[in-house]
Write a structure and sequence with these properties.
This is 3-keto-5-aminohexanoate cleavage protein. This protein is an alpha/beta fold and 311 residues long. It has a single domain, classed as TIM Barrel, CATH 3.20.20.70. 38% of the residues lie in helices and 17% in strands. The protein is built from 11 helices and 14 strands. It has an 8-stranded parallel barrel with strand order 1-2-5-6-9-10-11-12, surrounded by 7 helices. Strands 3-4 form a two-stranded antiparallel ribbon. α1 links the parallel β1 and β2. α1 runs parallel beside α10.
């Protein structure tokens, strides 16, 4: 692993898991997503990992038109690296999930390195009243869905987005096997170093948020990729801050955001993405590290530059 001299701090403002009824602070409309993302960048976020929503009811959307409502505003207001998800939601087709990336040709896209059970039904237990008809079924039925990326899908994303537009990837690895799958595509020459690996912990169906699992993932990645990768980590839910801290202590990078946790402390909802960014930034700086600027992250990750995107 290339140990971090400066920490790339990613913020994921909205995602596709949490729903409007779970927190009044979750950004839902395009205006809210833009405002929240800009505030997070001003608080110190280096990278913004973005999903789109339907303005009318807050449901996850893959549509380029919904991304277009906030991408230009964010770009005009901040120099942060913009990362468009190709994960979307388990209810979207691959063509749906690629619509935003193919339209806007970002510097970075997320890429899940394999299929997994992605059960977030427990998040609905805290909800007393659902605001929109789609929410309850969407959350509770996640027990019976697979977040699907097979090797055909992964290769399509690497060629149709990565090779076509010079876009790099945030390789999301929810399990050890996902690292080996990435190594397979490295051997095929479909992606080039440096690799930005995002270890994901605490999702029901993936690796648990146990420090030993983080150590095992880093050790495996070291064996497979040597000095050709940078490691970042986050944990869903209450372990968000501890895992971000643990990743930094181990020479890596970190991610926060309301996509991954709605809370800032035990039982206390975060009032913004910026609040989470500021909290982890204080920890990073207290530990003696610095948060990377967007320009520094572009150099570290070998990105094409914000002037080469399609928005």
């Amino acid at each position: 692993m290339r140990r971090a001299k400066k920490v790339i701090l990613t913020c994921a403002p909205t995602g596709s898991i949490h729903t409007p009824s779970m927190s009044p602070y979750l950004p839902i409309t395009a205006a809210q997503i833009a405002e929240s993302a800009i505030e997070a960048a001003e608080a110190g976020a280096t990278v913004l990992h973005l999903h789109a929503r339907n303005d009318a009811d807050g449901s996850p959307s893959p549509k380029a038109a919904d991304f277009e409502r906030f991408l230009p505003r964010i770009k005009q207001s901040t120099d942060a690296v913009i990362n468009i998800s190709t994960g979307g939601s388990a209810m979207m087709s691959l063509d749906d999930r690629l619509e935003g990336a193919k339209t806007f040709k970002p510097e970075v896209c997320s890429l899940n390195m394999g299929p997994l059970i992605f059960d977030f039904s427990a998040a609905g237990k805290r909800v007393e009243t659902w605001q929109h008809p789609w929410e309850k079924e969407y959350v509770e039925s996640s027990r019976g869905r697979i977040m699907y990326n097979d090797n055909v899908y992964i290769e399509r994303i690497m060629t149709e987005v990565g090779q076509a537009f010079g876009t790099k990837f945030e390789f999301e690895c929810y399990d050890i096997g996902h690292l080996y799958n990435l190594a397979h595509f490295v051997d095929k020459g479909l992606v080039k170093a440096p690799f930005f690996i995002q270890g994901v912990f605490g999702v029901q169906g993936g690796l648990g948020a146990d420090p030993g699992n983080l150590a095992y993932m880093v050790a495996t990645a070291d064996k497979l990729f040597g000095e050709d990768y940078m490691f970042s980590a986050f944990a869903a839910g209450r372990m968000q801050m501890p895992f971000g801290t643990l990743s930094v202590i181990n020479g890596g990078h970190a991610r926060v955001g309301l996509e991954d946790s709605l809370f800032i402390g035990r039982g206390e909802l975060a009032t913004s993405n910026a609040e989470q960014v500021r909290k982890l930034r204080i920890v990073i700086e207290t530990l003696g590290y610095e948060v990377a600027t967007p320009a520094e992250a572009r150099e570290m990750l070998g990105l094409k530059g914000g002037d080469q995107v399609g928005f």
